[in-house]
Amino acid sequence: MSVQTIQMEGELVTLRSITDQDIPILWELIYGVEEPEWKKWDAPYYPLEPHTLETYRSHEHARQERLKQKEPDSRLVIEVDDTIIGTVTYYWEHKPSLWLEVGIGIYNVDYWNGGYGTEALNLWIDHLFSKLPLARVGLTTWSKNQRMMRVGEKLGMKLEGRMRKCRIYEGRYYDAIRMGVLREEWKAGRSHRIEGNHP
Predict the structure, then answer these.
(1) Which residues belong to the signal peptide in this entry (predicted)?
(2) Residue stretches of the chain with pLDDT short of 50
């Protein structure tokens, strides 16, 4: 089945569905550099799954085909001024209980620390709460990724779990971090997020 086309506009970023024309650009951003800087912060304890352009294209098509009718697209590109800088995603930790986790990757380091990720994740979580009967949206990261934890805090997420010293990277232990926001908290914090998210 074809996935419904999505496009969301913020002040800084646009989130939209991935097209075939985007796939070579995403492949270059993700796999075009050996040991990319973004991967040092995005769960580096898991190796980056290798892909050629063609296997990546096949992987993306298969992801879209797995989506059930009326289920929101699970991955969108983040654009700034028509330039793709990253993606937002979601995955089911446990679908029968509607336990959903979100993720974000800003692959172009020129767009770090500019508020782009915060706005993108704000749009994305808002979209998911509007499209799915979720009680909570979660975010998993690790204790070295302070930027990601600050983004979660800006969006009203609470620290729900800290599993101590269960991630090893470059010979050092780090904590696994679980953050989350409930639907009622998200709704209550809407005006604060809108006023406070932009530099």
Answers:
(1) none
(2) 1-2, 196-199
